Fold this sequence. Notes:
By secondary structure, this protein is α+β, with helices and mostly antiparallel strands.
Amino acid sequence: MDRWYAEYHARENAADKLARAYGALGIPEDHIRVFNLDLLSSEPAKGDNPFHPSTITNKGYAGEWAFMFGRMLN
């Protein structure tokens, strides 16, 4: 379990379900990242769950992704 990581956006539609699923899987709490940045103004909201894809497209999360993939950014 020390190699499992997970993330979700606090405002995405399935946030509560994802949090429960990650807990049921036994993913350590310090390996779960809850993103919370606003949507980028350059990327208008699309669909009924715009925060879900924002966790990949927002460069503000680069440090979190680096952490989850096992390296830190300088």
